[in-house]
């Protein structure tokens, strides 16, 4: 591929940290039922970003496993989509 794993690994780790930081903030805001849904989606996103980071790390360590970089990229995009859904849900709940 285009050596994306070197970019996916630190960004996935950062996004994992963002998800883990936002979960307690949502709990402190006491958003209600939507807050529970957002918490669960962010927890799922954390796992997706962890998988993305692990796959990108493995593709860096084992360049012959080039397919892992593509899977890491796909997982990362799914994680971003999940965070976007959380942002939309939160913004409509706070209006």
TrEMBL record:
Organism: Chromobacterium amazonense
Transmembrane segments: 7-29, 41-60, 72-92
Key words, A-Z: Membrane, Transmembrane, Transmembrane helix
The name this protein goes by in its record: Uncharacterized protein
């Amino acid at each position: 591929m285009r050596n994306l794993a070197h970019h996916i690994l630190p960004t996935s780790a950062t996004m994992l940290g963002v998800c883990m930081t936002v979960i307690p903030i949502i709990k402190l805001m006491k958003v209600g039922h939507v807050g529970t849904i957002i918490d669960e989606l962010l927890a799922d996103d954390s796992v997706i970003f962890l998988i993305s980071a692990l796959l990108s790390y493995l593709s860096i360590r084992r360049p012959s496993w080039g397919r892992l970089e593509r899977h890491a990229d796909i997982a990362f995009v799914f994680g971003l989509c999940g965070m976007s859904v959380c942002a939309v849900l939160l913004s409509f709940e706070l209006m």
